[in-house]
Amino acid sequence: MDPRGGNALRLGTVCAPMFLVLLDVLVVNVAMPSVGHAFDVGEKAWSALVDAYTLPLAATLLGGGWLTDRLGARRLLITGLAVFAMASAVCASAPTWAVLLAGRAAQGLGAAAMLPASLAVLTALWTTEPERSRALGVWSGISALATALGPALGGLVLAFSSWRTIFWLNLPICIAALLGAVRLLAPVRRVREDTSAPVRRTALMGSTLAGGLMTVVGNGSLTGATLYLRESLALGPLPAALVLLVATIPFAALGPASGRLMHRRGRRCTAVVGIGTGAVALAVSAALADRGAIAVIVLLLGVGVALGLMTAPIVGEAMSSLPGRQGLAAGVNNTARQIGTSVGVAGATALIAHRAGGTGLALVAVVTAAIWCLCALVVARTFSTPATG
What percent of the chain has pLDDT over 90? Predict the structure, then answer.
């Protein structure tokens, strides 16, 4: 089944959950100062706006994956989208900081149902190579659109409207995805566990650890760059968001290319090339920390290229590690990635807070470069080679 032809709408539907998850992390990153000031919350507590969402999501993703395999991917996808939509409405109308955090937690629960279900649907629709690699590459690219649109959309909304509009904008996306799931995904049947296929334990452990390390650095470095642009360089929401496009454009553009590279060179090579590129760029950014905007641009370019190349192979390795249990495999990988997001956002916020000039940004860059070096070692030792399998 070719993801480029008449099945584009199906692929768009299964990509919508990850699009929404990334959109809501990165839009909120840009909005953190505005929301914090609106509720008179101190800077150190701002990361709770992300953590209230990602921690419940990470805690319940395994359960969502288990339910996906037992109850059916389409059913869980529809349920998760509906919960996410209602929770977004709660966030948009929240009268207090506590209600807003409760709404964010409910968004996390909805995402925990729809994320593993969407990847299980993808693997059920595209079952052979190179079609599955291409579909995962497009999935990575469409997901990256959220990374591209998130900061820019957040900045645009904050420039002309209230931060509450950010959450209202989730509703049309959820409705479109719900309609797609109901109308287009009806033929997808529940995945049955293949007890004869062996679990690839090394691949499972490696892809889980690599997925977590990927998002520690990806979301942590983007958070650090956002706070540096907003607080140290005193850029407004929209100019800061436009600068962040330096990272998100290569991320989105390289997603489909990574699918083709995976098919030719294997997951391990594709991921290591991406991780290595990102680690070098982060180290260079740290060395240029006193150059302000130049350091930020180097950091963003490296992170964007790295994420564009490494996301699809890491997810692909995870999905192949548990044959016949794609919901559980997706749940495990997404759990690691959401924990990584929480650690990265909180860590970057702590590292950059109250540090003058480029000192905080340099510290974020050094720490994240070291983490990605560890990630490259994990991938090199545990991923399949040379074919994608």
Answer: 24
